[in-house]
Design brief:
alpha/beta, Rossmann fold, N-(1-d-carboxylethyl)-l-norvaline Dehydrogenase, domain 2, 2 domains, six-stranded parallel beta sheet, 15 helices, globular
Length: 293
């Protein structure tokens, strides 16, 4: 039986680890914030006291952590993954991080005789629960194929993007589109609300017309209900847009729409909505138009 060391039990990580357990993998779990493993332990997971312990007993390590600095801490500190990594092991990082960090991790894992895949996901919380995530993966195609069963225990599709760093690049390009689309949806809904339209009727028009989008399907009804329970937080959306901005500067790609979306989500963060769903950006527009959307 393949043993998985799973590190990061947040909104996405906890249901991903649960699906691995349901598919018959042995899973040792660790989270930087204590107390998040209780439900997984009931499903049969074992608890690791550190990333080092999780890595030392695992054939494959899966990480999904919030940002670059947190990833560096989990990998590089004295109780970190690299301190406990044995030769021949594979690390799958599903965090959204900078391509530069993904490449550095790949080199340092390789120096210890392991294989590294940067494999961020799309599908949000619902996809993590249902096991329908899509993985965009950078790294050796052979390593991807060797771990296909691990990926498909958590998701429905694996898209190999190329060498290490390409998975991270794909995720930042993808989330630039997500952030821009979400902001566009909310701005259009604000116009309709201020114009006195029946909002459920307007949302039907959006979903059935040229403005149809995944964001309209995922967020439109949440906005109308004022339901900002987290599928993907506003703070994480802003973090990803900031990473995308740095990447695009390095690549020399002008990104005026990304920068506009980033500024809007910064306004949402400044208003205190960072830990709510990214759709809480609608609250900023509601303040601007003086009424509920």
């Amino acid at each position: 039986m393949t043993t998985i060391g799973f590190i990061g039990l947040g909104t996405m990580g906890s249901p991903m680890a649960a699906n691995l357990l349901r598919k018959g993998f042995a899973v040792a779990v660790y989270n930087r914030t204590p107390g998040k493993a209780a439900e997984l332990l009931k499903l049969g997971a074992s608890a690791a006291s550190s990333p080092l312990e999780a890595a030392a007993q695992a054939d494959v390590v899966v990480t999904i952590i919030s940002n670059d600095s947190a990833v560096e801490e989990v990998y590089y500190n004295e109780q970190g993954i690299l301190a406990g990594l044995k030769p021949g092991r594979t690390i799958i990082d599903s965090s959204t991080i900078s391509p530069a960090l993904a490449k550095r991790l790949a080199a340092d894992v390789a120096a210890r005789g392991g294989s590294f895949l940067d494999a961020p996901v799309t599908g949000s919380k619902d996809g993590a629960i249902a096991g329908t995530l899509l993985f965009m993966v950078g790294g050796s195609k052979e390593t991807v194929e060797a771990n296909r069963d691990v990926f498909l225990a958590m998701g429905r599709e694996i898209v190999h993007m190329g060498e290490n760093g390409s998975g991270a690049t794909a995720k930042l390009g993808h989330n630039a589109i997500v952030g821009i689309n979400a902001a566009a949806l909310i701005e259009g809904m604000a116009i309709a609300a201020k114009g006195g339209l029946d909002m459920p009727s307007f949302l039907r028009v959006v979903q059935g017309g040229g403005a149809a989008s995944k964001q309209a399907d995922l967020k439109g009804s949440k906005i109308l209900a004022g339901d900002y329970s987290v599928q993907f937080s506003l703070a994480l959306m802003l973090k990803d847009l900031k990473l995308g901005s740095v990447l695009s500067d390095g690549l020399g790609v002008p990104t005026p729409m990304l920068e506009a979306a980033k500024s809007l989500f910064q306004a949402g963060q400044a208003k205190g909505y960072g830990e709510e769903d990214l759709a809480a950006l609608a609250r900023v527009y509601e303040e601007w138009i003086g009424r509920r959307i």
